[in-house]
Design a protein that fits this description.
Helix content: 10-25%
Distance between the termini: 72 Å
Radius of gyration: 28 Å
Strand content: 25-35%
Oligomer: single chain
Number of helices: 9
């Protein structure tokens, strides 16, 4: 039991949506209320319709050295859980016991002061996280090098881009060397190269035997880093265990062949995605022997150059089958403001029958704007092909290999052991 560093017992957190704040009461106000209440008859108070339980009866244990991915849809309670574990907010009921020094990175630049420079904020944020000044001084050069902000370290952070902001914040938190590191969705900010750098740093933390909890919608990152996963739905814990089965359960929990953004953000954004046939007509369950694909709509609220669009097709268990991006076909995405549609069509007999998910990515050279790990979920049915006449096949894709069959050479005509008589050997003759 001494190896358990986090024990959560029946944790719950309630918020009151739209509740009226109670102002300051004078002594006279308090006495008036008391006297009025003494002579009034109170009826039972009906349940408050504005109550919202972000977490409800969540219990689990995490051992020292575990890397735990916390997954679930929007509003599942992931961020609320991490805020309670980071002691930023208190639970309504239940308790969480944590053994060890905690470092957390929950929001971009939390603890930063806009008017201070990057150097000053490094010391300030490090102190908030519990680092001594001598420790920050010893690691300062490593932090700045990791964040790649050497040129701007003495510039006020209010002039930083969001990418620079998160790089510096992550660098400070990651170099804290906590016994428990808590990270919430910061891997979705910054360019792809820095995201890989963050994953590598979390890998290093985990290899040193420290405990890591992180929230991410990137299932590939979760499966690469995590040894186990916690699945939340509507504030309740519905799965806790080895990473593979939990991710598969999450990805398969909501099959849908259409994606639509809930609201517009005013930034480059994915608006819609549909599963379509080769003529662009919406479909529900394509045959794996037919051409099919995806139609994706996105918006650029303002002119912006260098925009790229990418997709990833994942198997039902979250394994990435393949990726494709506009760079692959030298497609120039328009730089002008407006809404655009992109169609991607897969050739027939590419994927085997089964369950799949479509990930969508929208980014430019400096920032990842959107990363939807399961924008679509769909099933491929067996088509009328001789490939599947004798039952199902193992694997994920159908590769059209070249086969040749010829009579075997007699034993006397075969090359001696240790010699090679293939095409390369014959080049010299």
């Amino acid at each position: 039991m001494t190896d358990i560093v986090i024990r959560v017992e029946q944790l719950a957190k309630r918020y009151r949506i739209g509740a009226r704040r109670v102002g300051y009461l004078t002594l006279r106000d308090a006495m008036t209320r008391f006297m009025t209440a003494a002579w009034s008859i109170r009826e039972p108070k009906p349940p408050d319709p504005t109550e919202f339980w972000a977490l409800d009866d969540v219990s689990f244990e995490i051992a020292r050295g575990e890397v735990v991915g916390i997954i679930g849809g929007n509003g599942a309670g992931k961020s609320t859980l991490l805020k309670i574990l980071s002691r930023i907010t208190t639970p309504t009921r239940g308790r969480a016991r944590i053994v060890g020094r905690v470092g957390s990175l929950l929001e971009v630049g939390t603890g930063f002061h806009h008017e201070l420079t990057g150097r000053e904020n490094t010391y300030l944020y490090g102190a908030i996280l519990g680092m001594k000044r001598s420790e920050i001084e010893r690691k300062f050069d490593q932090i700045v090098a990791f964040a790649e902000v050497e040129q701007f370290i003495d510039t006020a952070v209010k002039y930083y881009s969001s990418g620079m902001y998160v790089r510096l914040a992550f660098a400070v938190a990651a170099h804290l060397e906590p016994e428990i590191l808590i990270v919430d969705e910061v891997l979705s900010v910054g360019d792809a190269r820095f995201q890989q750098k963050c994953l590598g740093k979390i890998d290093d933390v985990a290899r040193n035997g420290r405990t890591v909890l992180f929230v991410s919608h990137n299932m590939a990152a979760v499966q690469r880093l995590a040894t186990s996963a916690i699945l939340l739905e509507h504030g309740r814990l519905v799965g806790n265990g080895p990473i593979g089965p939990i991710v598969a359960r999450y990805l398969g929990s909501d099959s849908h062949v259409r994606y639509r953004a809930e609201r517009r953000t005013g930034r480059p954004q994915l608006l819609e995605a549909h599963l379509v046939d080769e003529r662009g007509r919406p479909i529900a369950k394509p045959l794996n022997t037919d051409s099919f694909g995806f139609r994706i709509s996105f918006v650029l609220p303002a002119a912006r150059s260098g925009i790229k669009l990418g997709i990833g097709v994942l198997a039902g268990d979250g394994t990435m089958v393949f990726t494709s991006r506009t760079d692959d076909v030298a497609m120039a995405v328009p730089a002008g403001a407006g809404e655009y549609d992109v169609s991607i069509i897969l050739p027939p007999d590419t994927l085997l029958a089964g369950d799949y998910h479509l990930a969508l990515y929208l980014w430019d050279a400096g920032e990842m704007f959107e990363e939807r790990e399961r924008a679509l979920s769909f099933s491929l049915e067996h088509g009328p092909s001789v490939l599947y006449a004798n039952g199902g096949r193992q694997g994920l894709v159908h590769v059209r290999c070249s086969w040749a069959l010829e009579p075997a050479a007699s034993l006397d005509d075969r090359p001696a052991a240790g010699t090679y008589a293939g095409p390369l050997a014959r080049l010299g003759s």
